């Protein structure tokens, strides 16, 4: 009982870390997308 609980909590922590990493990746992706979007119109105006 105790062992399986330990394993479950470890899996839970790993899952949370993965989720956090995923969110961070998405945020940086969105940031670069937005920056590219804002840079392009300026380039086109020149």
Folded structure, characterized:
Helices cover about 95% and strands about 0% of the residues. With about 45 residues, it is mainly alpha-helical. The longest helix is centred in the middle third of the chain and has 44 residues, at about 1-45. The mean pLDDT is about 80. It has one domain (about 1-45). The protein has one helix spanning about 1-45.
Total helical elements? 1
Q: Please count the beta strands (DSSP E, at least 2 residues each).
A: 0
pLDDT < 50 stretches: none
Rg from Cα: 20 Å
Q: Tell me which oligomeric state these chains represent.
A: single chain
Global geometry: rod-shaped
Fill in the keyword field for this structure.
mainly alpha; 1 helix; 96% helix
What is the element layout, followed by pairings?
Blueprint: H1 2-45
In short, what is this structure?
It is built from one helix and no strands. The chain has one domain (about 1-45). The model has no long low-confidence stretch (mean pLDDT about 80).
């Amino acid at each position: 009982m105790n062992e399986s609980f330990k394993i479950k909590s470890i899996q839970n922590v790993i899952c949370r870390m993965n989720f956090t990493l995923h969110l961070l990746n998405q945020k940086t992706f969105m940031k670069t997308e937005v920056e590219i979007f804002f840079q392009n119109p300026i380039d086109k105006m020149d």
